[in-house]
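Question (not urgent): is this output format expected?
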Amino acid sequence: MSDPSTSPARPGEGTRAVHAGLPEPSPDAPPMPGPVLTAHYHLPGDPADAAYTYGRDGNPTWTALETAVAALESPDEPAEATVFASGMAAISAVLLSHVRPGGTVVLPNDGYNLLNPLSERLTELGATVRAVPTGTARQREAIEGADLVWLETPANPGLDVCDIRVLADTAHREGALVAVDNTLATPLGQRPLELGADFSVASGTKALSGHGDVLLGYVVCRDAALTESVRRWRKLVGAIPGPMEAWLAHRSLATLHLRTERQQRNALVLAEELRGWPEVRDVRYPGLPDDPAHELAARQMRGFGCVLSFTLPDRAFAERLLAATRVVEEATSFGGVRSTAERRGRWGGDDVPEGFVRMSVGVEDAADLVADLRQARAAAAAAARAG
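Got this back:
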C-alpha cells in the first residue's frame, strides 16, 4: 500500500478535473454551488469596487468554470479563461479582435469548416488570409510577416497534426501571436500554452461538456492583456454563455478524464477494426502506431482523442451504412458520451471524398460498437447488391 505522505505535490489529471474551480468545503454548503441566474447585481457606491456589476460582464458561475478550465489548460503557470456562448464565438473573439485591416493571418485550409466563411469575412475587412494545410512545410513558410497564426491540431476532420512548439517559436520570431484550437484534444490530451501558444481555444460543446446538451466555448491565455482583449470583445458583441450552460459544463468536468480515457480506448479498437475492411481506405486515427500523425502526436499529446475518420467507396455506400447503425447515431459534432458518425461531405465545406466518414467514439462497450458497425456494413453491402 502506498504511503500518502509520498503523493506527488501536484494532483493527477483526474483529481484536478474533479476538483477544479470548486470552493473550499464549507459546513452545510453544496460541493458545487448552483447556477447564479441574474441579469444585474446590487450595486451601491463605486462600480470599480464591485466584483460583479452586470450580467453581460460577469457571473459567479462563469468565474467558477473559468477558474476550472484555466487550471486544466495551464496547471503550472497562472492563466485566465474566458467562456463564451459557443466555440464559434470563442474563435471569432480571437480572430476578430486581433486581425486588423492590412494585417495577415495564417489559417488551416483543412480545419473546422466555419473557418472558411470567417476567412472570407476577414478578407472583406481588409486582412490578408493565407490558408495552408496542417502539418506541411507550407504552414511554416506562410508565417513570415504574419500577425496571427491559427493552428488546429489534430485538424478536423482529416486528423493531421502539426508541431505546436516549432510553429509557435517561428511565429514569435516574426512577432506573430499563436492560437491553437484544442477542441479535439481537450486540455487533458494537450496543453497548447505549455507548447508556446498564446491562446488555447476550444468548443466546450464537444468533449469538455460531453453530453450533447450545451453550447459553449472558451479562450485561455497567460497574458492578461490578451485576456482583456477577448473579454472586451465578448462584452461588446454580447457572446456570453448562460449561467445554466456554464454550470452544466463545470459539472461535466468531474468525469472528463473517465470519458476521454474510455473514448480513446474505444476509438483505437474501432480504427483497428475498420482497417480490416476491404471496402474501407484511409483510416485515420493519431493513436494508430502507423498513422502518419502518430509520431508527432505522441510527442505533444497525452491522449489521442475520440475522433477517427475513414473513407467508404462512395456516397451511397456511406449513407446506407450510417442509416443502418443502431448504436452509433448519425449526427454532427463530436466528443459526446454517445457515439456518432456522419458523411462529412454532406455539409459541402470540407475538401473530402464523398464517402468520407467522421466518427466520434463514445463510452459504450467497444464490443457493441464493433458489432454495430459490422451489422451496418452487412446491411449496406446487401442493399448495394439488391440495388
